[in-house]
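Sorry, I am new here, but would you mind making up a protein's amino acid sequence and the tokens describing how it folds?
***
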Amino acid sequence: MNRSHHLETAKQKTGYFDVIVVGGGATGLGVAVDAASRGYSTLLLEQHDFSKGTSSRSTKLVHGGVRYLQQGNVSLVLEALRERGLLIQNAPHLVRNQSFIVPNYDWWEGPFYGVGMKVYDMLAGKLGLGPSKNLSLKKTKELLPTLETKGLRGGVIYYDGQFDDSRLAINLVQTAAEHGANMVNYAKVVGLLKSNGMVDGVKVSDQLSGEEFEVNARVVVNATGVFTDKVVQMDNPEAKPMISPSQGVHLVIDKEFSPGDSAIMVPHTSDGRVLFAVPWNGKIVVGTTDTPVDSTPLEPKAQEEEIEFILEHATQYLQGNPTRKDVRSVFAGLRPLVKSGGEGSTSSISRDHTLIISESGLVTITGGKWTTYRKMAQDTVDQAATVAGLNLKDCVTENLRIHGWLKNVDKSDPLHHYGSDRVEIQKLVKENPELGEPLHERLPYLKAEVVWGVRREMAMTVEDVLSRRTRALLLDARASVDMAPEVARLMAEEMGQDKTWIEAQVEAYTAIASDYILA
């Protein structure tokens, strides 16, 4: 995958694309894969890097949503559980079965959550990952050896999915490209083109060269997540905002704080949210918060009270009592929650997706979550094809294998999340043994992954490599800063860049990473 090639093809397109997708997060990527795999000519434009926003900052879960079951939103849970099952089949190298334990400290919690999880199992049907069951005190302590034992009565175990979000995003970019889509990162849509009052294209600013150009399409899909309103207002400056953004923060700590294989799920914290402590890439991700916010920056920052809230709850459930100095990284993401008209906390605003077609034919898809990205895309392309008057073709993504598909991956192999591409990365190391060297002693990443990211995964900056092609920034922010100069050097060699570029990249990356490091 080569950005210059995809960009030039888009710029030189004569006539119309069938579909232009604005936004390269989970939803936009899903739409691009769906449209391209149906045979529609497709262009996706992302203002920064693929999955730069919300889609690389999730809780790393592919789940039905126990919380939505509590809220009585059975249809959303049913849809999400079905999609969870399909995603495990379509991307087995990235999505895996994860056991979760709900610890019980009150007498009523065992029966109450036990029954709730049985309903969850029943809704999953044939695509279930394993039966839930009540655990004795002894078994709970055995599975979660560092769990706070004071007042502990036992637990309930159930199964959900766990994944690597930005790696899935990159594989979706590759899947769409393999089906003929043009995928361009660092291409910001700065305006909509119209003829006879109908949207028929976009004005684009190349964020790397500064050049502006226009591209036409039979239909434009706005899949920009928390930036939805900005694109809607390009179409209609009078449009009322529909997004009520909410911030979720996660802390990453070492595995020693919860060395078992099971994740911990606390269904009800003091702010009404679910709290997770999930094993991920050799660390534990603890979160999340739910804080209404007014602005939607590309780099949201964790607020002090959010950090304290998570640490306070983590110490209630983990004997090791993690403190600020134990936090390897803190990251924040914004949820594109759709306003329902009434007042209320964002934790109760719906995660259902919302599809809107404006009078000018702009198709907007927003809301939803990673787990349901494929179904959101299917619904969107169905509507977009009708709006554009395209030949109607059936969706084929239910059983479409995502790039890298590999059934039985060895999870202990540091390259396992590349799936079938792992072999190609090993070839790079054979050709140049230096590329087999690790980038940092505390993290599992090899120099070869930097070269691969530039050659085959459209990585354009040091941040692209350290945050989203590898997950170094999220796993250990300080270590990632140590890695930055070597990553920049390797990238510069591949991209024909000079010392000035290397220095600028390292400086820019260090500034971004500083917000992931707790003082």
Notes: The two ends are 39 Å apart (CA to CA). The first strand starts at residue 17 and ends at 22. Residues 463 and 508 are 8 Å apart (CA to CA). The first helix runs from residue 3 to 11.
